[in-house]
Every structure is written in structure tokens, then in C-alpha cells.
Design a protein that fits this description.
single chain; mainly alpha
């Protein structure tokens, strides 16, 4: 994986995490937590997806390229 793709994945992961945190603290998520004890599925998927994509991007940047 080249550096450009890794940086793009890292940026996308951070953006998804920001949207996930925003959805986690939204009014609909508060109502869902009140009745079910868990936040909305959208918030969870954004947080999980953002973390996964961010980790892949970070690992792509951290590994050494062979030349």
C-alpha cells in the first residue's frame, strides 16, 4: 500500500470517528440509550468503522517500504 492511500485511509478514519462521536452524543442516541441502554446502530457502526479504517491507515504508514 502506498503512502498516499495510507494517509487517505487515516483521514477517512478520523472523519468517521468524528461523525460517530457526533451521532453518539445526539438526541436520538440519548433516547435510544434511555430505553435500550445502548446508543443507536448508526453511531456504533461509525465508531467501529472509523477505528478500523484509521488503524489500517496508521499501519500502512508505520510499516517500512522495501526498495
Amino acid at each position: 500500500m502506498n503512502r498516499g492511500m495510507s494517509v487517505a485511509l487515516l483521514v477517512i478514519g478520523v472523519i468517521l470517528l468524528v461523525f460517530g462521536l457526533s451521532a453518539y452524543h445526539s438526541a436520538s442516541s440519548d433516547v435510544s440509550r434511555f430505553f435500550t441502554g445502548a446508543p443507536t446502530d448508526k453511531a456504533l457502526w461509525l465508531l467501529i468503522g472509523g477505528a478500523a479504517v484509521g488503524i489500517v491507515g496508521f499501519l500502512g504508514l508505520a510499516r517500512k517500504e522495501k526498495r
